[in-house]
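Why should sequence recovery work at all? Because a backbone constrains its sequence more than one might expect. Tight turns favour small or flexible residues, buried strands favour hydrophobic ones, and helices have their own preferences. The token representation captures these environments compactly. In the example below, the structure is given first.
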């Protein structure tokens, strides 16, 4: 099969690799093989490719949907020909962190359960992925394999995992209808966060450098744009009777924006970091946390407890047009052109939004 193989920092090559099966051409019990149709390019994949944080070779990609091509012994919940999306992480459901609902800190969750070969890394940038038994699901255990209705296109289904991550963050904030939320960054993730925040009844302000992105955000009911080239804290205070936003969500991987977000919220407000997935140091005023009682918090990855709710949200939103996420896709690349897709996603432009690879 063909796959986009990570060979080192900034080095992704499309190569012919074996289909990820056992040496005898079989799957192990409980596993499935999925023929990938669509895989989104995620910022976390890009960070790994550009930073060298994970040793090569690997095949990345985890926002994926496709068709069951083979099933292992004991698989009963899906059959060959079923349309599915697969999460690449699933928690154990029993450890201390799972009992506390912080599933992404579970040690079992940190294992990657989908692979196209080499060290398991998602594998969506390939023609086929092997889905491990603990992702497929066992009796009484969480499952990360979602069956897709026939009327839901693969491109919409490929958003289920990123929607889950965003929905989890919004749920953690406990937004109220009388609150105002500022979302910094209106790339695909920023628009998802803002659109989901709006569904709580809260008022939503959005900030971005590109007017073109605000125009796309308007398709999701987001009609209060702020020009990121200006003074965002001042504009936010002006829009909230001088108080500041109740919540600021930072959907851009730029540590300098933490201070911007802290200055934009009211005393007692909350800042949610969503894109800070690389370790480092960032400056902020500690008195803003202590004396102004501002909260700095984070949310990472998906929540298995939300899988069913998120799937229904994505399905229903496509059917009634209120959450048709295919409208976020600006570029579709064939698998053979995966390096070009990664290059464009790594250097976003006014005209680029979600980049997907079609296998």
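From this structural description, the recovered sequence reads:
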């Amino acid at each position: 099969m063909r796959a986009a193989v990570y060979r080192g920092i900034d080095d992704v090559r499309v190569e012919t690799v074996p289909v990820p099966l056992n040496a005898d051409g079989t799957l192990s019990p409980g596993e499935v093989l999925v023929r990938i149709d669509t895989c989104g390019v995620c910022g976390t994949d890009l960070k790994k490719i550009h930073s060298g944080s994970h040793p090569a070779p690997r095949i990345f990609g985890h926002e994926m949907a496709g068709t069951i091509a083979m099933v292992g012994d004991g698989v009963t919940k899906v059959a060959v020909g079923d349309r599915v999306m697969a999460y690449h992480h699933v928690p154990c459901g029993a450890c201390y962190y799972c009992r506390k609902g912080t599933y992404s800190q579970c040690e079992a969750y940190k294992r990657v359960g989908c692979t196209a070969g080499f060290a398991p890394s998602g594998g969506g940038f390939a023609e086929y992925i092997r889905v491990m038994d603990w992702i497929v699901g066992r009796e009484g255990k969480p499952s990360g394999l979602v069956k897709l209705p026939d009327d839901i296109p693969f491109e919409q289904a490929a958003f289920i995992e990123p929607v889950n991550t965003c929905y989890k963050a919004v749920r953690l904030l406990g937004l109220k209808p009388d609150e105002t939320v500022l979302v910094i960054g209106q790339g695909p993730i920023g628009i998802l966060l803002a659109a989901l925040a709006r569904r709580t009844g809260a008022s939503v302000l959005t900030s971005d450098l590109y007017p073109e992105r605000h125009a796309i955000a308007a398709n999701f009911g987001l009609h209060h744009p702020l020009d990121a080239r200006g003074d965002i804290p001042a504009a936010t205070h002006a829009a909230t009777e001088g108080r500041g936003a109740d919540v600021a969500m930072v959907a851009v991987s730029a540590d300098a924006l933490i201070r911007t977000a802290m200055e934009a919220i009211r005393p007692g407000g909350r800042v949610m970091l969503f894109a800070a997935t690389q370790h480092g140091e960032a400056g902020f005023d500690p008195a803003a946390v202590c004396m102004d009682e501002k909260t700095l918090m984070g949310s990472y990855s998906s929540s298995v407890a939300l899988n069913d709710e998120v799937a229904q949200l994505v399905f229903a939103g496509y059917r009634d047009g209120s959450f048709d996420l295919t409208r976020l896709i600006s570029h579709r690349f064939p698998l053979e052109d995966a390096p070009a897709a990664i290059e464009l996603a790594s250097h976003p432009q006014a005209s680029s939004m979600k980049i997907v690879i079609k296998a």
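A few observations help interpret the result. The chain has a mean pLDDT of 96.
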